[in-house]
Write a structure and sequence with these properties.
elongated; 4-stranded antiparallel β-sheet; alpha+beta
Length: 150
């Protein structure tokens, strides 16, 4: 990407940026998926043309789904959600029929150890917490509860 004048972000190695005048083009690459966005339509078209010449690829149009995050558009607004991701986590944990709650945990509520409780599988627990951390990107309302169990 550097040969096209892009600079790799220091905070996210999958993000490449190119500033031209007061416009910007952003490219995010993850394995074989990429997002190209920005307000420099001329540069975006030039980048797509260069990439099409160098790689076998398709332009799928407006972003709809990326890394488990669904992108919806309506009247100039953009919404992100992880409905499919949530359903997969619920199915995996056997909680598909659970009832939702407005507040997943009370603030300043500490966790307690129950002597009668069966120990959880540590690896399975850590994987679930990781999935919940990822889920909190589109659900900041659960970030506090996820932080407590993490």
């Amino acid at each position: 990407m550097t040969k096209y004048g892009f600079r790799q972000s220091n905070s996210d190695h999958t993000l490449f940026l190119k500033k031209r005048d007061d416009k910007i083009t952003c490219l995010i690459i993850y394995v074989d998926d990429m997002i190209i966005t920005g307000d420099d339509t001329e540069e975006i078209e030039r980048l797509k043309g260069s990439l099409f010449q160098e790689f076998e690829m398709k332009d799928l149009g407006n972003l709809k789904y990326f890394l488990g995050i669904e992108v919806l558009r309506s009247d100039g607004e953009i919404f992100v959600r992880q409905k499919k991701y949530i359903l997969n986590v619920l199915a995996e944990t056997g909680l598909i029929d659970c009832k939702p709650t407005d507040i997943p945990i009370l603030v300043n509520h500490g966790l307690q150890i129950s002597e009668e409780a069966e120990l959880a599988d540590q690896g399975k627990y850590q994987r679930l917490v990781g999935k919940l951390i990822y889920l909190s990107h589109t659900r900041p309302d659960i970030a506090y509860a996820v932080g407590i169990v993490g």
